[in-house]
Specification:
By secondary structure, the protein is α+β, with helices and mostly antiparallel strands. The protein has helices at residues 12-23, 70-82, and strands at 5-9, 29-34, 39-44, 47-54, 62-66, 86-93, 102-107, 113-118, 125-126, 129-130. It has a single domain, classed as 2,3-Dihydroxybiphenyl 1,2-Dioxygenase, domain 1 (Roll), CATH 3.10.180.10. 17% of the residues lie in helices and 38% in strands.
């Protein structure tokens, strides 16, 4: 559904280093660095999707990153705390969303609510066909 997103941050270099460390356990790196219009691009297999740029910090912006395992959620959460994140919710099952929904929430350097989530049975089967695994904004992620 969403090809890429630009995430406004108050201090690009600080946030770049933060996300570089936090996203590494998820297999996401930062191969793109542009300085003419300062931006940093994060990618999986060199395909970018998450971009940082200097800008006005947005109110109520929520971003959730997909992990490939509960251990990856824990590793990303720990990496985020090691580089200055605040813990909003430790890694745990979230049965209020689904019985196998495993996630952690942190606050990034600008105070954004960031989630790291693992859903082992995603995408769920619906009427015998699989849903497309895409970045989906649902009502429970609107704060």
């Amino acid at each position: 559904m969403i090809d890429h997103i630009y995430h406004p941050v108050s201090v690009l270099e600080r946030s770049s280093q933060f996300y570089k460390k936090m996203l590494q356990p998820l297999g996401i790196d930062m191969p793109y660095k542009f300085d003419q219009v300062p931006q940093r691009g994060f990618a999986i297999n060199n395909i970018p999707g998450f971009w940082l740029k200097n800008g006005e910090v947005a109110k109520d912006l929520y971003v959730a990153f997909t992990a490939k395992s509960a251990d990856a959620v824990r590793a990303s959460y720990k990496a985020a705390l090691d580089v200055g994140a605040t813990s909003s919710k430790e890694p745990s099952l979230r049965p209020e969303w689904r019985s196998d929904y495993f996630a952690a929430n942190i606050g990034d350097p600008d105070g954004y609510n960031i989630e790291i989530v693992y859903k082992p049975t995603w995408p769920p089967k619906v009427h015998g066909s699989a849903l497309i695994n895409a970045l989906v904004f649902s009502s429970h992620h609107v704060w």
